Protein backbone atom coordinates (compact mmCIF):
# COMPACT_ATOMS: atom_id res chain seq x y z
CA UNK A 1 0.00 0.00 0.00
CA UNK A 2 1.08 3.57 -0.61
CA UNK A 3 1.27 6.43 1.86
CA UNK A 4 -1.92 7.86 0.36
CA UNK A 5 -3.70 4.52 0.81
CA UNK A 6 -2.60 4.35 4.45
CA UNK A 7 -3.70 7.94 5.10
CA UNK A 8 -7.11 7.10 3.62
CA UNK A 9 -7.49 3.96 5.77
CA UNK A 10 -9.98 3.95 8.62
CA UNK A 11 -8.43 4.81 11.03
CA UNK A 12 -5.60 6.65 9.26
CA UNK A 13 -2.20 4.88 9.30
CA UNK A 14 -3.75 1.73 10.78
CA UNK A 15 -2.17 -0.66 8.22
CA UNK A 16 1.27 0.59 9.24
CA UNK A 17 0.50 0.21 12.95
CA UNK A 18 -0.64 -3.37 12.28
CA UNK A 19 2.57 -4.04 10.35
CA UNK A 20 4.56 -3.12 13.47
CA UNK A 21 2.51 -5.49 15.63
CA UNK A 22 2.94 -8.31 13.11
CA UNK A 23 6.69 -7.70 12.94
CA UNK A 24 7.07 -7.59 16.70
CA UNK A 25 5.12 -10.81 17.09
CA UNK A 26 7.26 -12.56 14.46
CA UNK A 27 10.48 -11.31 16.05
CA UNK A 28 9.89 -11.96 19.73
CA UNK A 29 9.05 -8.28 20.40
CA UNK A 30 12.56 -7.15 19.43
CA UNK A 31 11.96 -3.56 18.28
CA UNK A 32 15.35 -3.35 16.59
CA UNK A 33 14.16 -5.88 14.02
CA UNK A 34 11.11 -3.78 13.18
CA UNK A 35 12.67 -0.35 12.68
CA UNK A 36 11.60 -0.24 9.02
CA UNK A 37 7.96 -0.68 10.03
CA UNK A 38 8.27 1.87 12.86
CA UNK A 39 9.79 4.41 10.48
CA UNK A 40 6.95 3.76 8.01
CA UNK A 41 4.36 4.47 10.71
CA UNK A 42 6.14 7.67 11.70
CA UNK A 43 6.17 8.74 8.04
CA UNK A 44 2.43 8.15 7.78
CA UNK A 45 1.67 9.89 11.08
CA UNK A 46 3.81 12.87 10.11
CA UNK A 47 1.89 13.17 6.83
CA UNK A 48 -1.40 12.79 8.75
CA UNK A 49 -0.53 15.75 11.02
CA UNK A 50 0.73 17.84 8.09
CA UNK A 51 -2.59 17.27 6.34
CA UNK A 52 -4.95 17.59 9.32
CA UNK A 53 -3.13 19.83 11.80
CA UNK A 54 -1.30 19.23 15.06
CA UNK A 55 -4.51 18.83 17.06
CA UNK A 56 -5.86 16.02 14.84
CA UNK A 57 -5.94 12.53 16.28
CA UNK A 58 -5.98 8.91 15.19
CA UNK A 59 -5.60 5.83 17.38
CA UNK A 60 -2.76 4.62 15.15
CA UNK A 61 -0.43 7.56 15.88
CA UNK A 62 1.15 9.13 18.93
CA UNK A 63 0.29 12.77 19.62
CA UNK A 64 2.05 15.13 17.21
CA UNK A 65 4.52 16.43 19.82
CA UNK A 66 5.54 12.90 20.85
CA UNK A 67 5.82 11.87 17.21
CA UNK A 68 8.22 14.75 16.52
CA UNK A 69 10.32 13.77 19.55
CA UNK A 70 10.43 10.11 18.48
CA UNK A 71 11.40 11.08 14.93
CA UNK A 72 14.21 13.30 16.25
CA UNK A 73 15.46 10.51 18.53
CA UNK A 74 15.44 8.04 15.64
CA UNK A 75 17.31 10.51 13.44
CA UNK A 76 20.01 11.02 16.09
CA UNK A 77 20.40 7.26 16.62
CA UNK A 78 21.29 6.64 12.98
TrEMBL record:
Q: In this UniProt entry, which cysteines form S-S bonds?
A: 13-44, 23-34, 45-61
> Where is it mainly found?
mitochondrion
Identify one Pfam family in the record: CMC4
Which UniProt keywords are listed? Disulfide bond, Mitochondrion, Repeat
* Segment forming the signal sequence: none
Give the location in the cell.
Answer: Mitochondrion intermembrane space
> Can you say what this protein is called?
Cx9C motif-containing protein 4, mitochondrial
Species: Neurospora tetrasperma (strain FGSC 2508 / ATCC MYA-4615 / P0657)
